[in-house]
From TrEMBL:
Keywords attached to this entry: Membrane, Transmembrane, Transmembrane helix
GO biological process, one term: GPI anchor biosynthetic process
Parts of the chain that traverse the membrane: 81-102, 279-298
Family: Belongs to the PIGL family.
PANTHER family membership: N-ACETYLGLUCOSAMINYL-PHOSPHATIDYLINOSITOL DE-N-ACETYLASE, N-ACETYLGLUCOSAMINYL-PHOSPHATIDYLINOSITOL DE-N-ACETYLASE-RELATED
Classification of source organism: Eukaryota, Fungi, Dikarya, Basidiomycota, Ustilaginomycotina
Single GO MF descriptor: N-acetylglucosaminylphosphatidylinositol deacetylase activity
Species for this entry: Pseudozyma flocculosa
Protein name, UniProt field: N-acetylglucosaminylphosphatidylinositol deacetylase
Domain of life: Eukaryota
Xref: InterPro entries: GlcNAc_PI_deacetylase-related (IPR003737), LmbE-like_dom_sf (IPR024078)
Amino acid sequence: MAPRFASNAPMQQTQRTRRAARRAFTHRRSWLVALPVVVLALLSLQSLLSGLWLTSSDSATTETLPRTALVLTAHPDDEVMFFAPTILALVGAGVHVFALCLSTGNADGLGSVRHRELVQAYNALGVPEDRVGWLDDRKLQDGMRTVWDPTHVAGRVQRYLDSLGLQIDALITFDSMGVSSHANHIACHQASLLLRDQGTFDAVYALHSPRLATKYLSLPSSLLGTLLSLPLSQRAVAAHVQPPIDKAILPQTIRALSSPSQYRQSLEAMRRHASQLVWFRYVYIVLSQLMYGNLLVLL
Ligand SMILES: [Zn+2]
């Protein structure tokens, strides 16, 4: 007769394996339950906080949105990849948004395709074609190493404004980091300082470039930034019910957070840039916090 322990060993081994499998299954099942709950909670918070949040350096003042704003970008697709939450929120609040893109994005010889895509993308963001301008200037060609003269850029912006025949309240463009440190983005910022100094606009706002550590933390990063700013912020009211602009001040910062449906609108706008949809852009539109929210700082 075989020893008792010898015949029980395989059975104990089987029981241990079954217990481990049951634990692994339970663990997986709890994740499967928790994940939709977390996603639902994030989307609910996003819906609740979506819109425009304004801050001022003086708590006794009333902040107001500009009635009109010009979004100044360097290349077709900048408006979706970096400024979509701002554009959607301003359009939603009744601000008349105008756009000027300083190049056709002709780095790969696709300029004629890309400026058409630019107009279509702005359309998807709610900006009509007659408010979208672009330049094809030999001094402002797309390129990481192409240096744009800020004085020339400021002059071209002024000419565009003259062609519109309108006084635009606010300019919105890149900050000194240009989000990606692209030389053409930084030239937009440098030109905006010149335009501010010559009083072309009532206000000039720079898009805050996120730090690398949080740049690709997607929606949670934008939600956290909005939550942390709430004690010092007030929600913007629609442009058409605000006091006249001379009876209120333009805010020190403007924070825009897209709702889930506005984020889908941004994806639709990105689809219009068909010539740019390479694999890393799909990763970008999911992970970049700038696809969900923007912080604009008064210069
Ligand atoms: Zn760009």
